[in-house]
Amino acid sequence: MSNLQLDGIYTDKMVVPANKHFYISGHALPKADVSVEIFQQTYQTTADADGVWKVRLLLAEKLTCDIKITSLDEEKTLHQVRSGKVILLTGQSNIEFKFRDDAEYQSEIDHLTLDNTYFYNVPQLEYHDDNLTLPTDLETSTWQVANKETLWEMSDIGYWAAKKLHELNPEEVIGIIDCYKGGTSISSWVPESVLSSDQELVKRFIKPFKEATTGKVQADYDQEFADYNALVDKHNTDLAKFQKENPEVSLSDAKDAVGHTPWPPPMTPTSYLRPNGLFHTMIEQVKNYAFDKIVWYQGENDADNPQVYDIMLRGLVLSWRDLFKDFSVPFLIVQLPGYFDEPKDAWPIIRQHQLEITQKINDVHLVSIADTGEKHNIHPTHKRIAGTRIGEILSDQSYSSTPVVYRQQVLDDKLILSVTSASSLVQRGNAYFLVKQADQWQKRQVRTVGKLIVLDNCQGIQKIRYAYDNYPTCTLFNELGAPVAPFEMEIG
């Protein structure tokens, strides 16, 4: 085995940000000299006592080159390295959802017009021991050209975003880094410092994990999984029987009668669902890379803990910026789409937290897709609208976010709300708010004037809500068709 190793993301055909410093990193013999040559310039460093090394580099726009790394008598070369726009896509299952499963996959492949696009799938490492020993069966990954032969394994959202980026700037090289894991809480994606900083997070995540994994032997875990699998099998059997006996009933109604699939599975010390796990096993795999922007699409699995989502989301943004040593890297937070089958108001609460975090931290922007989604399908197979909207914002040729209500003003008896990211608002049908007056909620129609929302007869209003449902009806859009983000707002 070679003593000179590069971290996994550094392969041929990789894309690095143009005009932004990035690192090449890896391992060598402890205290060994390492040199990196690029465009006939050589950069030197020395591996530390553990053999870890990294070198800081910069590539200008529209460049392609080879990078040669040497240490002692060993040499490695990275071929066809390109500079361009690099996007980190991360989160859970709806951003993990593969392009091959999109309803439009075959028609897109048959008429593919995508060029200058490359992607890298971060290996889904679920656990490593204290010695950072990687499983022998862990699939490795390389940078790939996005074409008819490879796109089946790319993120569906990533494909549509890259397609829009390419349409807007055909000459720009695009690098998509896919880093996601389905079924996960945001608590798995943050470091220990975030969860330990708040007693409510300790109570909801750290203590249950310790209780579930303390004082047990393997036989205990085996029995728990046997019981869990028996519940899943029984659920599947009962659901199939109910559907056969009631063929006219929808899947959602059938699940209401029979119950939903048991989730999550039992917790173990090595479960990928454990607190902080994926921060170490996946995000830290790319800690030395550099990104132009980060897209975070997650929240579905925190429907049981929506009240504390804001603490974890804030912690995620700040801790990742610290890990990447890039304290201003822009984040795009994807506001959840519509989905009915969750506890009442769980998704509206999470959407509100997603909105508020973009208003509290610099260079964090909202991409609302609340006008998309399927009422009883948590994994819609149509993601063109969501991905295209993300791509438009990533392009820097449009608004920096979808429309957001950011200011309130009371004039006479009118409540006037100002909206960002719009030159004019478009109504699709009548637009209604829920309005709280005298501690009572009522439905009230609103109107638009340019990019303002106006509510008449507003005396004594305490709070307003717009599209505040798990599966909302969005009626207000900007001139580009992007929805005004669902929100809740205190008045006064």
Features:
11 helices, alpha+beta, 25% helix, seven-stranded antiparallel sheet, Rossmann fold, 3 domains
What would you say this structure looks like, in words?
With 492 residues, this protein is an alpha+beta fold. It folds into three domains: 5-191 and 280-394, SGNH hydrolase (Rossmann fold, 3-Layer(aba) Sandwich); 199-258, no CATH class; 405-490, Immunoglobulin-like (Sandwich). The protein has helices spanning 93-96, 105-110, 156-168, 192-195, 199-213, 218-245, 251-258, 277-281, 309-324, 346-360, 384-394; strands at residues 5-6, 15-17, 22-27, 33-38, 41-46, 52-57, 64-71, 74-91, 117-121, 144-145, 174-180, 293-297, 331-335, 364-368, 405-411, 414-419, 425-427, 431-437, 440-449, 452-455, 461-466, 476-478, 487-490. The strands form four sheets. Strands 2, 4, 5, 7, 8, 9, 10, 11, 12, 13 and 14 form an eleven-stranded mixed β-sheet that branches. Strand 15 (405-411) and strand 16 form a beta hairpin. Helix 3 crosses helix 11, helix 6 crosses helix 7 and helix 9 crosses helix 10. It starts with a strand and ends with a strand. The mean pLDDT is 95.
